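Comment thread on ticket #2218

A.B. wrote:
> Attaching the input chain for the structure job we discussed in standup.
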Amino acid sequence: MHKDCYKGNRAEMKIVVLGAGLMGRAVVYDLSGAREVKSIVVADFDRARAQEVARKFGRGVTRAAFADVRATPQLAKLLHGCDVVVNCTQYNWNLDVMRAALAARVNYMDLGGLYHMTRKQFALGRDFRRIGKLAIPGMGGAPGITNVMARALADPLDRVDAIKVYNAGADEQRYDSPVAYSFSIATILDELTMPPIHFVGGRYVEKEMLSEPETETFPAPIGKIVLRHSIHSELGTLAESFRKKGVREVFFKINYDPKLVGLVRSLVDVGFTEREPLAVNGTQVAPRAVLLALLQKKTPAQTPLDVEALRVVVTGRADKHRVGAAMEMFADHTARPQFSAVARDTGFPAAIAAVMQGRGEIPGIGVQAPENVVPPHSFFGELKKRGFTFRRWNVKS
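C.D. wrote:
> Ran it. Output below, let me know if you need it in another format.
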């Protein structure tokens, strides 16, 4: 399917994908179907895992490499000469990879930074402008697709009052373990333990974890579900991007499996998510590091049979009338290749944007939010070619 997704002359792009996990392999697979991409390097601290991803998903144009994102000179050497580096590592390494991209003088994008990291990344804007390159933080699904949907909905409005982002999912797989997960368990832990940010009344406010529930109905098999506040990268950019249009409220809400939420809360109560080391038999041990090591050993053998829906609702004014509109993206899992819906709608948008950036279809320099540089029409068109569906409707303002 993907050999026909990209059109245009071969631009002979070289792209480096950092991270050979669930999202990185989806990026590699989609990029390897682009006629414009001459070569792909998938790099990971675990070189054997990178080799496996290159072999299984790289379709003959991908090679594996070792990368330690903490070693800036060596990483910059690996990135030298590439068109774009797509950072699929854990979000806490975003600034390290950006500094290596600056040293190598290459374009950069990642999958998100959970608000606080995203805000820090914009401090490097002047450095990217100085070298004439573009960095796009949060170019996956949520954030990424959600940001571009917000742009598409807000553009026709004279004034934006509120941007509401919802992330809904369901998984029909039966797992052996209660800690099944379809993306980084470290990120899930942070989302379930860090206070959410709500932009309300024109200012950023911390909310209680999983507070202010809303019931919404999504396409089957998701159905009617309850979504609650969670920390997310969209809050790091949307309020600033639409400040000139007067936006007064932005939030992100998600549905998490109640069993997972209960488990994490119990772990928090006994201190297993603490980052500060404790003395254990004469050795300093960080409880969170031990917990992550244990959870990573419990990676479920079963493949997710999941679906995901991303919905954005924007309300405001147009021609002095109160108006509102919603847009929703729906993604399904696939068997060949075997990808979860979350991997597809996180990895494929980054691959699409990387190729668009290589073609010169995404303008700009510095550090830019997806909603300010990614053209909605062509971006959504590429997603539709991959089986993602979109719908749009009016809502009461």
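A.B. wrote:
> Thanks. Noting for the ticket: The chain has two domains: 2-141+340-385, 145-256+300-337+390-394.
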